[in-house]
Amino acid sequence: MARAQAANTDTATRTLDVAERLVQTRGFNGFSYADIAAELGVTKASLHYHFASKTELGRALIERYAERFRERLGQIDAGGAAPPAKLAAYADIYASVLRDRRMCLCGMLAAEYETLPEPIREAILRFFDESETWLADVLEQGEADGSLRLQGSARDEGRAIVSGLEGALLVARPYADVDRFETAAASLLKRLAAA
Amino acid sequence: MARAQAANTDTATRTLDVAERLVQTRGFNGFSYADIAAELGVTKASLHYHFASKTELGRALIERYAERFRERLGQIDAGGAAPPAKLAAYADIYASVLRDRRMCLCGMLAAEYETLPEPIREAILRFFDESETWLADVLEQGEADGSLRLQGSARDEGRAIVSGLEGALLVARPYADVDRFETAAASLLKRLAAA
DNA sequence: GTCTATAGGCAGATAGAC
DNA sequence: GTCTATCTGCCTATAGAC
Fold first, then answer.
1. Distance from residue B25 (CA) to nucleotide C3 (C1'), in Å?
2. Which 3 state secondary structure label does DSSP give A148?
3. From the candidates B114, B124, B169, which should be mutated to test the interface with A, based on the most A CB atoms within 10 A?
4. CA-based nearest residue in chain B for residue A172
5. Cα distance from A6 to chain B (closest Cα, Å)?
6. Domain A54-190 is in which class?
7. pLDDT cut 70: percent of chain A above it
């Protein structure tokens, strides 16, 4: 993991890549070490060398996913767009997940929440909390500069956006219908546009 | 199943009751025949007598769930309330699911969609289709009588409501926070209220 | 309709050689 | 860091007695 490895091709990273896709498409209870091993052409024992337990693998998965999500939020902030455009860019993160025919990693894990070990549970809640905090900030900016009009508190509107987008992903995926998602997302954001 | 059984206490019915709760809380891949058998105090073999395969059990589960959902929609219609009140009653079906600390059965299965056998997949899509059709009707009534104001088509607004409520359930459940759901649901419906 | 017994497979995980 | 081999336990499902 350290040193000058070929960054994206070491076994640990490739394991995370495959496991991430499997969780996002099949759920944490819908794949096994054997699935990953077969796809990478290694044995299950090798995987256990890098991630001692499935719980540890899951924790690492969320951590990397949240970190990348955080980076994308930082890029949106750095772009300096107006609040409505920031919200659209936020929704487009979700759209890109669906175009990959995946569910949001943490949305999927939220469904399985009751079956998951404690370290994973905590990480899921932190992920949603971060999104909600970032959205609340954007919504407050928009209210301040007059580009957005909120009906409830920034916190509550932020929560409605997160859950609205997660639900749009959840339902659109069985239909394999990106338009279905786009329409729901647009309707979600439209109501915040200033009159 | 037929005859004059004590309606709600025969093994088939009790199996459906327990399995339904397990799917709604843990997912289809998160429980086993052994879990149900232990809770009912019978053996796994007995369960297989009533539901030969887990797939058959799942199909029966959705069928009963959809039928009961259909009945509740019928009751709302029979109540003769105005469209905005009908929407609130619809959202309250979801709230009652969350109060039971459950996810919508079909929302849970939507997450696991890719891992599910074909008969179950079909039943999930039919469930969402029915809700969307019913909602589109209510929304059109509301637009006609002036009690609701739609921004998009009735079909699209209906879809946004279904996915918005499913997402609100999905995210609120890990937080075990009914208020979180209520707030998101209210915000979802408020924007349809006539000016 | 429920039971005992069991088949056959896959799960997550570990020991120890290389 | 990857392998072979193996453990233990659970999974869905079936056969056949009662």
1. 30
2. strand
3. B114
4. B163
5. 33
6. mainly alpha
7. 95
A112 contacts chain B (CB < 8 A): yes
List chain D nucleotides near protein: any atom < 7 Å from a Cβ.
1-5, 10-16
Lookup: nucleotide whose C1' is closest to B48 CA = D13
Say whether residue B114 is in contact with chain A using an 8 A CB cutoff: yes
What's the whole-model pTM score? 0.96
Which phi and psi (to 5°) does residue B152 adopt?
Answer: -115, -165
pLDDT digits (tens, 9 = 90+) for B149-182: 999 999 999 999 999 999 999 999 999 999 999 9
- Tell me if A123 sits within 8 A of A59, measured CB to CB: yes
Q: What are the structure tokens assigned to A180, written together?
A: 């279905």
Q: How far is B25 from chain A (nearest CA, A)?
A: 7
pLDDT at B3 exceeding the cut of 90: no
3-state secondary structure of B147: coil
CB contact under 8 A, B160 and A184: yes
For residue B1, give how far its alpha carbon lies from the nearest alpha carbon of chain A (Å): 32
Q: What is the pLDDT of residues A23-43, one digit of tens each?
A: 999 999 999 999 999 999 999
- Whether A77 shows a pLDDT value over 50: the answer reads yes
**Residue of chain A nearest B128, judged by CA positions:** A171
The domain ranges of chain B are 54-190
User: Above 60 in pLDDT, residue A114?
Assistant: yes
Other beta carbons less than 10 A from residue A158's beta carbon? 23
Helix, strand, coil content of chain A in percent (nearest 5): 75, 0, 20
**Is residue B1 over pLDDT 90?**
no
CB B44 within 8 A of CB B128: no
B19 Cβ neighbours under 8 A, 6+ residues apart = B31, B36, B57, B61
Residue type, B97: V
3-class SS at B1? coil
CB contact under 8 A, B187 and A156: yes
What mean pLDDT is predicted for residues B100-129? Answer: 98
How many angstroms separate the CA atoms of B141 and B152, rounded?
15
